[in-house]
Amino acid sequence: MQNEQNDTSGAAAHIAALIAAVRGWWRAYRLLAGVLTVLSVWGAILITGSIADNLMRFGDAGRWIIAAFLWIVTLTTAWRLIWFPLRMRLSDDFFALLIERHHPEWRNLLINAVQLRRAPGAGASERMVDAVIHDAARISADLDRETVVDSKPTQRAGLALFAVVAATGLYAALLPAYCLNGMSRLINPAARIAPRTATMILADSIQPGNGRVPEGSSVAFSLKIAGRFSDAVRLWTRTEDDHWTPLLMTPDAATRSVFRCDMTGLTRSITYYFVAGDCR
Predict the structure, then answer these.
(1) Is the CB of residue 246 less than 8 Å from the CB of residue 272?
(2) Which of 42, 48, 73, 275 lies 20 to 30 angstroms, CA to CA, from 82?
(3) Angle of helix 176-187 versus helix 2-56 axis, rounded to 10
(4) Following DSSP, what letter does each residue of 57-95 receive, concatenated?
(5) What's the pLDDT at 3?
(6) What phi and psi values does residue 177 have, to the nearest 5 degrees?
(7) Is there a contact between 191 and 184 (Cβ–Cβ < 8 Å)?
(8) How far from 101 is each of 74, 85, 88, 109, 144, CA to CA, in Å?
(9) pLDDT score recorded for residue 124
(10) What is the tens place of the pLDDT at every residue in 269-279?
(11) How far apart are CA 49 and CA 130, in angstroms?
(12) Which residues of the chain have pLDDT under 70?
């Protein structure tokens, strides 16, 4: 009698260890699939937003909207696919059924053993319960526990992340400056990062800046460009109650990257900005 009890205890311990192992594999696969999916979603939104920002050159409001969308979707996905599943309290019955789906030839023997081990049903003899537990332990002795858990969602998540990484790598390889600029502007929208342009106006070269000049005097405007050369450099000016007026600037004879123009007879304050190629 004692030997039979020991055998039953050993069979029950085997079933408990089997369920615990499958539970561990299930949680590991769900966690890995969730992490890969979250990274894929974050990367896809970031690279798409970066390209859109490079093309549209969003202002501060546009960058904040994209950044908020990026983090809201990422955190929501993380909660749904990582936090929530790992906090679920799934019974042993769930994992027994998960195993039975891969082995329909067992005819619910494992789930019956799990339920009888927990709470023998009314009318079930001790000998019958022991027999069911012994049979379930015997048929599951050589079970490959890892293969019971479906790995396809994890594989799909891995392929999605690979595609996002490949697209990001291609973008960074072809247009490294644009890629870095766009991502930096979205990851940290509070930073004063100007959009990347093919033609760049060097801020420290702009003259005359903000200042006062005597009424009616001549004002010399100048700037220096870098990157893609553009001969379409214009100075746009307006007074407080007037419309914007363009003035074509001419390249310096000695340094073609420097452009100049003069305005004479100024009697009112003006606001101005420069446009060189795709840079403003």
Answers:
(1) no
(2) 48
(3) 110
(4) ---HHHHHHHHHHHHHHHHHHHIIIIIHHHH----HHHH
(5) 47
(6) -65, -40
(7) yes
(8) 33, 20, 21, 12, 14
(9) 61
(10) 888 888 887 77
(11) 62
(12) 1-8, 119-125, 145-146
pTM of the model: 0.71
Cis preceding linkage at 189, omega within 30:
no
Q: What is the pLDDT of residues 99-125, one digit of tens each?
A: 888 877 877 878 788 777 776 654 566
Two tokens, residue 223: 């700037």
Neighbours of 153 (CB within 10 A): 17
Instruction: Answer whether 108's CB lies under 8 Å from 76's CB.
Output: no
Question: Alpha-carbon torsion 48, 49, 52, 54, what sign?
Answer: negative
Task: Concatenate the DSSP letters of all residues of the chain into one string.
Answer: -HHHHHHHHHHHHHHHHHHHHHHHHHHHHHHHHHHHHHHHHHHHHHHHHHHHHHHH---HHHHHHHHHHHHHHHHHHHIIIIIHHHH----HHHHHHHHHHH-GGGTTHHHHHHHHHHSPPTT--HHHHHHHHHHHHHHTTT--HHHHS--HHHHHHHHHHHHHHHHHHHHHHH-HHHHHHHHHHHH-TTS--PPP-SEEE-GGG-BS-S----TT--EEEEEEEEES--S-EEEEEE-TTS--EEEE-EE-SS-TTEEEEEE----S--EEEEEETTB-
Tokens 């003899």: give the residue.
125
